[in-house]
Amino acid sequence: MSSDLTVRLQGVEELKRALARVPDKLRRKGLLKALRVSARLVRDDARLAAPVRQTRKINHRPGTVKRAISIRTSKFARRAGDVGVFVSVRPLRGARQKRLGAAGANNPNDPYYWRFLEFGTRKLTARPFLRPASRKLPQVAEAFIVSATAEINRLNTGSE
């Protein structure tokens, strides 16, 4: 499944020049906001494509996977000093686990089975919903540049 994707971005040079004038902390904050705005396109597309069980099965509520698709900040990028976000299915951990109960197959609020839906198993054919959402990458790139430019310009005028 190889496909060639070509994206041409315009306005990157002026965005780089504007970024150079903003302090580092504000730059990361502005870029993170712009990344989240552009990642919403992928998240919304993945939510639309996510399969939803029509009937309630023991320990599976309809729409659990769909509700768990979210935008999260990348800790790997943060550790490297960069800014990054990714769209994925949020696992049942931390405060959500304390509120909704122990993670695992016996909890109807745990979307642990999203991998089975996305990639398939020996007995279940794959019904991908996250991978096809990457078709929106050209629109995401454009939305990022527009949003980042607006945010950086706002920060530049506010910091002067």
Automatic annotation (TrEMBL):
Domain of life: Bacteria
InterPro entries associated with the record: HK97-gp10_tail (IPR010064)
NCBIfam families: phge_HK97_gp10
Name under which the protein is recorded: HK97 gp10 family phage protein
Organism name: Candidatus Accumulibacter phosphatis
